Amino acid sequence: MSSKKSKVKFSNESYAVAEMYKVPSDKPHTLPIYATSSYEMESLEHSIDIFEGKKEGFVYSRYGNPTVQALEEKIALLEKGSLKKDVKAIMTSSGMSAISTLMIELLNSGDVLVTPDGLYGGSTELLVSISKKIGFTLLYADLNDTDALNELQLKSKITAVYFETPGNPLLNCVDIKKLASFCKKNKIITVCDNTISTPYLQQPLSLGVDYVIYSTTKYLAGHGNSIAGCIVSTHTSKMNGDILKNMRLLGTNCSPFEAWLTYIGLKTLHLRMERQCSNANALAEFLSQHPKVKRVNHTSLSDHPFHKLAIDQMSNHAPLMSFEVKGGLKGAKKFMNALQLITHAPTLGDLDTLILHPDSSSHRNIPIHKRKEIGITPGLVRMSTGIENLNDLKADILQALDK
Predict the structure, then answer these.
(1) Number of helices and strands (H, E) in the chain?
(2) Mean pLDDT of 314-334
């Protein structure tokens, strides 16, 4: 990398401060981190052209960054699948900021948003909070029951539906194609959180969904070292317009460092998911046969209510499950505290296997009666499977259950 040649002799103070380097023409093999808040303009005319949209370019990293853009293009490509439409992705600072950035743009006072009962606790809390501030109505319904949805539509005129499939932590699934078809006929916007599945297992846009949300923190990045989110859609005009503008004005942009970590993590997505799904399928069967386990929630098991649907719309079963340990909270505590290899941590999608107690963490702010109603019990344990040796994971679970 060479320095710019100056015809004027400046002081060392100015030389220390000034950006004197020339960007090399060599293309780096690995995506670099553009750790800059702003970008140098070639001239005032160049600056005006960029601000007026006549030319492409970067001006300020809240508006756009080369590292972040490279990641957006990669995720859009993964989500596109066999679609012939263009796909646009917008990175955000977290999965929660992806939800808020999108929903604040899509919903207005007087609108109606419908979600399922078993939605991830944090998402439910956020949507409740946003609904109170904006003034839209939040309703709960079984999104697989289109007859009930039709009745609700006639009464309330639904604006949008928001769902995740499989759900966290009970692995309840939504028939994406069926729901998307119903919503299109009724001009209802569909938003799907695809965090658990990733494009490796499921591509909601190909099944008719309008918008896909990701907490890239989880399986997409896959290493537990970054926090970011993403909005993906085929509605490119809306994405490049109001939604992108909303992200910029709210300041929910993704940092270049988080984008770079996610970009590097994505390189091994298919390898990680293959092993994690394989481990999950085997551990679900293993746990279902243990006398101290009351029930196992995983779609690979034939007795799971969404076993067939998961096979129909996913390429494999998710690397996430939950199971109820006998003995309630006492039984769950005893089991979790006895684990030696598996880690207790409030996230999912890392390389190593993680457990969580939903009743006291992710869903603790959901009313107790509602938790009980949807199946979040004191004995429930959530497990995100990693890539460890399967026999080692079985041994750790067995010794902890048998304590």
Answers:
(1) 16, 12
(2) 98
